[in-house]
Amino acid sequence: MSTPVIDVQGQATPPALPAARPAAGPPKSPGLAFILSLLFPGVGQIYNGQPAKALGFFFAFVSTIYAVVEINPMPFALFIPFVILYNLVDAWRTATLINTRGTTEAPEDEVAESPAWGGGLILLGTLFLFHNLGWLDLSRLSRFWPALLIVVGAVILYRSIQKGKGAEKGDGTAL
């Protein structure tokens, strides 16, 4: 903490507040990011400067269509609107978070690319490659798709609990 400055008259003046960080780039329009993502999944993320996330959404969209046509329409047809809606919400939210950087408002979380996007693409690509090579029959696995929902729900629940514990340890208040 800096010490107060003594002026000519002998009075202490408080130190100047630190300047806010300048924004990393030009402001992003959440509406434009939303519309671009509506045109095709991933384009809004490219606009926001997140190419890895854009590839993730693009391949998730294409993979669900591929799974509907080649593997089994149910349950994969249910994933198409999920991918589209999540893509739209993510584009809007990310553009908003990018615009709050450098302001006095603290953003909810950082907008950095997650390694999970790359790992998910590798896993998805490997599954489809094995299916195309005949080493894995995805149509036989289609009845076990609810297990994927259970795993994803467990991961989300675990992260939420860990985040809550971190908040309790940090300032003594529960979320």
Radius of gyration: 23 Å
Structural class: mainly alpha
Q: Report the span from N to C terminus.
A: 29 Å
Beta-strand percent range: under 5%
Helix content: 55-70%
Number of domains: 2
The total strand number stands at: 2
How many helical elements?
7
- Main sheet summary: 2 strands, antiparallel
* Strand order in the largest sheet: 1-2
pLDDT < 50 runs, ≥5 residues: none
Task: Write up what this structure looks like.
A two-stranded antiparallel sheet has the order 1-2. The protein has helices at residues 30-39, 43-47, 51-70, 73-100, 115-133, 138-141, 145-171; strands at 5-6, 12-13. The protein has seven helices and two strands. The chain has 175 residues and is mainly alpha-helical. The protein has two domains: 25-136, no CATH class; 138-175, no CATH class.
Keywords:
mainly alpha, 175 residues, elongated, two-stranded antiparallel sheet
What is the fold's blueprint, element by element?
Layout lengths: L4 E2 L5 E2 L16 H10 L3 H5 L3 H20 L2 H28 L14 H19 L4 H4 L3 H27 L4
Antiparallel strand pairs: 1-2
Helix pairs in contact: 1-4, 3-4, 3-5
